[in-house]
Design goal:
By secondary structure, this protein is an alpha/beta fold. It is 37% helix and 15% strand. The protein has an eight-stranded parallel beta barrel with strand order 1-2-3-4-5-6-7-8, surrounded by five helices. The structure holds 2-phosphoglycolic acid.
Length: 258
């Protein structure tokens, strides 16, 4: 049986007002028909979540962040309960753009832990800043995985999604996207690190996806050779035509191979 691929649209700090956000989402949704093989998730800025939930229908809604306390004196923070109340079903944790603002593995670990109490599915981001010739990035990634998952309840592994997003491949200043082979190598590494820590049978359901300059041109390689469970898409998700192409490739690849 073929597993569904997951496609997460990370709008980041875009668009600039609620009306534009609604238009963007509507322009994507109007062309989606008979989606069966793909789990589609939209991650808009917090302030658009409530409005977009009304038009999102059967697709998933993600927050781009959350805080690990349930309530209290935490100015500027948003709890998982508030997000649940809005109908949010996924949360991106530890995105490199948040790490660049100071979030470290221990902080991200607390956010992951709080989701044991929640129905929200965590999308944990990891990724090295540089690829050095000595392969130091392998240790760096291993450390990110171990520290971010330290002391978590094994129940989280049943729903955990890990997004491998090399920092050098993200955004308009990216060097290049990773190759499908590079992604596959890291996917195996992630599985190995998790299997050694939690036991092979406990990590069967962990999904590992790729992010970093994904577009309608390079997605095919990742689907064919990268064995990815899905994608975290930034810029390309802001262009309905591009994003729909990405969805259609993801959706139809199993048929092409039938
Ligand atoms: P990008 O962003 O697709 O614009 O490179 C991906 C991400 O940061 O999630």
């Amino acid at each position: 049986m073929l597993n569904k691929k997951i496609l997460i649209a990370n709008f980041k700090m875009n668009p600039q007002n609620s009306k534009e956000a609604t238009t963007l989402l509507k322009n994507i949704l109007k062309d989606l028909k008979n989606i069966k093989n793909t789990e589609i998730v939209f991650a808009p800025p917090f302030i658009y979540l409530e409005n977009l939930k009304k038009i999102i229908k059967k697709y998933g809604l993600a927050s781009q962040n959350l805080f690990y306390q349930d309530n209290g004196a935490y100015t500027g923070e948003i709890s998982y309960k508030m997000l649940e109340n809005l109908g949010v079903n996924y949360a991106i944790l530890g995105h490199s753009e948040r790490r660049a603002l100071g979030e470290d593995n221990n902080f991200i670990n607390q956010k992951l832990k709080v989701l044991t109490k929640s129905s929200i599915i965590p999308i944990l981001c990891i990724g090295e800043k540089v690829r050095d010739d000595n392969h130091e990035y392998v240790n760096f990634l291993q450390n990110q995985i171990l520290e971010c998952t330290e002391g978590i309840n094994k129940k989280i592994l049943e729903k955990l999604i890990i997004a491998y997003e090399p920092v050098w491949a993200i955004g308009k200043d990216a060097d290049r996207e990773a190759t499908p082979e590079e992604f596959l190598e890291i996917k195996i590494l992630i599985k190995k690190v998790l299997a050694l820590k939690f036991g092979v049978k406990n990590i069967n359901n962990v999904r590992i996806i790729y992010g970093g300059s994904v577009d309608d041109k390079n997605i095919f390689g990742f689907l064919e050779k990268g064995e990815t469970d899905g994608f975290l898409v930034g810029r390309a998700s802001l262009y309905p035509k591009k994003f729909i192409k990405i969805i259609n490739y993801t959706e139809n690849l199993p048929k092409m191979h039938a």
